[in-house]
Design goal:
Rossmann fold, alpha/beta, four-stranded mixed beta sheet, globular, 285 residues, six-stranded mixed beta sheet
Length: 285
Amino acid sequence: MPADASRAVASAAPLGDALVRVERACYTAGRTEILHEVDLTVAPGELVTLVGPNGAGKSTLVRLVLGLIAPTRGRVLRRPDLRVGYMPQKLAIDPGLPMTVRRLLALARGSRRGDIAATLGEVGAAHLIDSPVQSLSGGETQRVLLARALLRHPDLMVLDEPVRGVDVGGQVELYRLIADLRRRYGCAVLLVSHDLHLVMAATDRVVCLNHHVCCEGHPETVTAHPEYRALLGPLVGDGLAVYTHHHDHEHGLAGEVVGAPPPHAHDHRAHDHGAHASRHEAETP
């Protein structure tokens, strides 16, 4: 962990039962404030989905949670000896580099030789162990990256857009797998998604981010939305859920809050999470 990041990570005393707590965190790059007074808590066993448009600061917040960067203001508290399994958005490997799935997982921190085949089996990818990484499909790559995150036997899995590049049917399968792994490992999950409406049905709480926390709440099951069920088919109803938004503010084209913003992040949040239309269509630059 970088020295500047370590100064922003406090001891477990103020954490209570939480694994990670971000408190009024701001992050500025140059003259651009990417995050403004963001609060985020993940409790043991909890599945939190972080949604927001492109450029909202989701990846920056993930880096704060992982301790890779320090907030400009505010603080990040993490439980001591917290084991985190991280699944990045994508895997960047030189096409000319000979790399099998087995070798890739052997390079993962904390991996043990005997665990690799077993963990691939848990994610339904045992048959890929000797396949070149460059030959994998989108869904196969995501399963291998999920296995890589599991090799640390994590208390917290941080999954950055785990269904990226996967069709709806594949998304549902991956979501069901993640829910099953959470039960088996007893770990918490912080899942990042750019989809503002359809989220994993097992989500306990959705946090909507656009440089600050716009709103948060529980998703609604797809079965309550006949139009989504008709569009996606009856077999996906138990894998996906709908998150509806209610914001007490508007955003400009650059993501800024239009009008005088409330002084603190808590004041940004609307606690009425009824079925209101999302305004994010106008938020994306």
